[in-house]
Amino acid sequence: MIFDLIVVGGGPAGISCANEAKRLGLNVVLIEKNQLGGSVRYARKIENFPPFPSISGKALFKHFQKFVEKSNIFVIFEDVEEISIFGNLLQTRNKSGNNIKGKSVFIATGQVDIIPEEYSSFGDLIRKSEDILSENLANKKVVVYGGGDVAFDLALSMLDAKAKTMIVCRSEIKAKPLLLQEATERKIKILKKSTIKEIKKIKGKKVVVINESFKVKEIVCDEIFFATGKKPLFPILNLPIQIENFDHSTLQNLSKMGVFLGGDLIRGKNRNIAVAIGDGVKAAFDAKNFLKGRKNGLL
Ligand SMILES: Cc1cc2nc3c(=O)[nH]c(=O)nc-3n(C[C@H](O)[C@H](O)[C@H](O)COP(=O)(O)OP(=O)(O)OC[C@H]3O[C@@H](n4cnc5c(N)ncnc54)[C@H](O)[C@@H]3O)c2cc1C
């Protein structure tokens, strides 16, 4: 079976693309390695998505799942390890060994947490922001390391879950003013310009050694979560074009091969559900035009 369009990644971008492609009459498959709905499930409270003036990430995540069910999108749960081009065809190599072929592909695999190199030796003493859903944090003392939106969103989620939360920021606070305001109103302790020097485990507790404005301090806690940034996540791309960044000309050149990219993957720090949905819908239109052009011998 050769699909018109393979969509890799079942977050808002991938779901919207697969749905629109189906409506346009394309034979489309959506491949997701984990859960449909993507990173939306980590968000605490979404207040910038107009159809829902205020909704929890978990509730919106369920809406995305229901939407896929209702739209009857053909979904395969697989971890795509590599995408290659052979002549006019694209092929995914999946972890299970079950490969999929298509005439075009939309890659919307999002982003993944970065743990800075200097902390890699701390291994499982550190939790990633993505681990929040698997932890029961009630009554635990938790340190969140980072000063951006994800750090503040996590800290507020933890407070909702009855954890005693503290934020340690390496530099100035970069989170949106609304998040900072809520964290301040809810009396989350925030240490600015503080760097973690060491993390030790002593008698079942974690001891975080920080440098706060040249003073050394020790904080005893149960868990430490890193929210120190994210980077694009994508499978190995075995294509004639090297992707060094996601500038207009790179995306344009990829689209000439029927390869489209969108959502958080290409958006840097501007991670946004509505933008991801827009990218997905646009990719479906672009794929349709690409296939039409190829059929008419224009490509
Ligand atoms: C804590 C937090 C709070 C947020 N709050 C907001 C908010 O209030 N408002 C807002 O607009 N946005 C918010 N966001 C951002 C929002 O969640 C993202 O912008 C949106 O989910 C991006 O959609 P996407 O489809 O591009 O990527 P994602 O949602 O990340 O989906 C990517 C999907 O691809 C899958 N995948 C990855 N690699 C592979 C592979 N190799 N094979 C198969 N599948 C793969 C992943 O499992 C995932 O399901 C928040 C994000 C976080 C983390």
What does this structure look like?
The model has no long low-confidence stretch (mean pLDDT 95). The strands form six sheets. Strands 1-9-8-7-21 form a five-stranded mixed β-sheet, with no helix packed on it. It has a five-stranded parallel β-sheet with strand order 6-3-2-10-22. The longest helix has 23 residues, at 273-295. The protein is elongated and about 70 Å long. Helix 3 runs parallel beside helix 4 (177-185). It is 26% helix and 31% strand. The two termini are 22 Å apart. The protein is an alpha/beta fold and 299 residues long. The chain has two domains: 2-113 and 230-295, FAD/NAD(P)-binding domain (3-Layer(bba) Sandwich), CATH 3.50.50.60; 117-226, FAD/NAD(P)-binding domain, CATH 3.50.50.60. The chain contains six helices and 22 strands. The structure holds flavin-adenine dinucleotide.
Query: Structural class per helix/strand content?
Result: alpha/beta
State the major sheet. Answer: 5 strands, mixed
CATH fourth-tier homologous superfamily of the largest domain: FAD/NAD(P)-binding domain
Please write the CATH class name of the largest domain. Alpha Beta
Q: What is the H/E string?
A: EEHEEEHEEEEEEEEHEHEEEEEEEHEH
User: Mean pLDDT, as a whole number?
Assistant: 95
- Low-pLDDT stretches are none
CATH domain fold name of the largest domain: FAD/NAD(P)-binding domain
Instruction: Provide the domain count.
Output: 2
Short description:
The protein has 299 residues and is an alpha/beta fold. Helices cover 26% and strands 31% of the residues.
